[in-house]
Specification:
Helix content: 40-55%
Shape: elongated
Strand content: 15-25%
Mean pLDDT: 88
Radius of gyration: 27 Å
Largest sheet: 5 strands, parallel
């Protein structure tokens, strides 16, 4: 087993990373490419994907810190290492409950740079102060200014459920960022990051020369870790993890790919990108755990999905959208898909040039099961502080052959769930709730959940039995059981029955009047 190396978990400072011998996946070739031009750039990536580290790398480069780049790709081509004044706005790690919180954060940043480069005005207006700061930095150093903005949309995303506050913050940011257009003559380079892609008629409407590289194939792997980078940079960690889990290197790579890979950020879906935060944590713990989802539960997204009519099966089979849909910023209570894509819960799986359209779906099993685990309690009427629904308890009962107890557990949650607002909504909620239970069981056993006609609603493969479920709404359990038999659903599993597994058929009926599972019948 190799000696453990320093893994950059949570390290967002390029300087700290390089000075303390952390493992670094060399992204400096992207710095070289971007720095050729004076065009202001925008990059959207999900949280925990390395945006802050890349921005810190740009900062070190434009500050001329040549020693930090020794041995990296950029050192082969860069000869000048010219030093520029850099103004860095970091909106991460703060709470923005009002416009005043935003103004205070900007004020604190401006004060630091005004002390460094001088202050040309006594105005309290952040727009005017930023405008004059750019000029004073240029006049003091004789060099054009570099402006870097990390997570521009953090104040907005924090207030998506408070439209008045969000509008005030958006208005404040619009005026502030307007300086990046009006003071263009004093600027050498501008780079802005965020989770969400902006609405071009909103915050950056005046900055019409902003180059959005979020979906540019050339920069697909600017953040995150490609498959090639994984195998080239983390061979010791892969070997250690394989040994720790008593599996082969090939099995380890397959498990890492299934759990953390699958992201595509452009039309070119050949470049797979792994979630870097999840990979580093998996290597550190030598465990295929869930790391990214647990660092920031998307409450506003899951609530939006819960409140709309949403076909959850499409998250896996794929959702077709046109290119403009992936650029929308404004939240639409009837359409959560664009925000699910932008925040990393869905990713590009295919692009059709003829129609300029994309197919997007869940990227990997970590995201899939994390999202489903977050959704299930909402259908049960649990708040964020309530206990979680432990799927393992459902599974234990089936393993013990306790089908009645399994159904009673589902019913107990139905009894506590919010009452229906309409017959149609109740039916859809029931379907979604049961669908989520079975899909989550698929994290531990082979579980198929079907929606097409002529197929059973759910099949759970256990060591000693195969359970076939059919659900009806305001019908009867007998009717459900008759359907299983008349359409001969078990025929696909009879060879397995010969190998010792018994086939258990379960017909279930929902009662919208009683708001619960009114009856079920078991055969086998």
């Amino acid at each position: 087993m190799s000696e453990n190396r320093n893994l950059p978990i949570g390290i967002q400072s390029f300087e700290k990373l390089r000075q303390n011998d952390f493992v670094y996946v060399d992204k400096t070739s992207f710095v070289t490419e971007l720095a050729k031009y004076k065009s202001p750039y925008f990059l959207s990536r999900p949280r925990r994907f390395g945006k802050s580290l890349f921005l810190s790398t740009l900062k070190a480069y434009f500050e001329g810190k040549k020693e930090l780049f020794s041995g990296l790709e950029i050192a082969k081509t860069e000869t000048e290492w010219k030093k520029y004044p850099v103004i860095y706005f970091d909106f991460t790690g703060k709470n923005y409950e009002s416009k005043d919180d935003l103004v205070k954060q900007i004020d604190n940043i401006l004060i630091d740079y005004e002390n460094k480069y001088g202050k040309l005005t006594n105005s309290d207006d952040i727009d005017i102060r930023f405008k004059n700061l750019i000029k004073s930095a240029y006049e003091k150093t004789g060099e054009q200014v570099v402006v870097l903005v990390d997570e521009y949309d953090k104040p907005l995303l924090q207030n998506v459920n408070f439209p008045e506050t969000e509008d005030k913050i958006r208005s404040a940011l619009k005026g502030f960022y307007g300086n990046l257009k009006s003071e263009d003559a004093y600027l050498r380079f501008v780079f802005i990051t965020g989770v969400t892609r902006f609405d071009k008629v909103s915050i950056f409407s005046d900055l019409n020369n902003l180059n959005d590289i979020s979906m540019n194939p050339q920069f697909s792997a600017i953040c995150g870790i490609s498959e090639k980078e994984l195998e080239e940079n983390f061979a010791p960690e892969i070997q250690n993890m394989a040994e720790k889990n008593e599996i082969s290197k090939e099995e380890c790579l397959l498990s890492l790919k299934k759990r953390y890979d699958g992201y595509h950020f452009s039309k070119d879906t050949k470049t797979d990108v792994y979630n870097p935060f999840s990979l580093m944590n998996a290597f550190f713990n030598n465990s295929f755990g869930s790391y990214w989802f647990s660092t920031g539960t998307p409450t506003f997204l899951t609530k939006m999905m819960r409140e709309t009519v949403f076909d959850y099966s499409s998250l896996e089979s794929g959702i077709d959208v046109d290119s403009s849909s992936l650029e929308e910023y404004r939240l639409n209570s009837c359409e959560p898909v664009p925000m699910l894509y932008q925040t990393g819960y869905l990713t590009i799986k295919n692009y059709e040039k003829e129609f300029d359209s994309y197919t997007i779906a869940l990227p990997n099993s970590e995201v899939k099961f994390g999202l489903y685990k977050r959704l299930l309690p909402l259908y049960a009427g649990f708040s964020d502080d309530d206990k979680k629904i432990e799927i393992v308890n459902f599974l234990k009962e089936l393993r013990a052959g306790k089908v009645n107890e399994f159904m009673e557990r589902i019913n107990a949650i139905f009894a506590a769930a919010p009452k229906k607002t309409s017959q149609k909504k109740y039916e859809l909620d029931c379907q979604a709730f049961v669908w989520l239970i079975f899909k989550l069981m698929g994290e531990f056993v082979l579980c198929e959940v079907q929606n097409g006609k002529g197929r059973s609603d759910a099949v759970v493969w256990e060591k000693n039995a195969i359970y076939i479920f059919e659900f009806k709404m305001d019908g009867s359990a007998k009717e459900a059981l008759v359907q299983i038999n008349s359409k001969d659903y078990p025929i696909s599993y009879k060879t397995h029955a010969l190998n010792g597994r018994k086939i258990v058929k379960v017909g279930v009926n929902y009662s919208s009047a009683e708001e619960k599972l009114s009856e079920w019948m078991i055969e086998g």
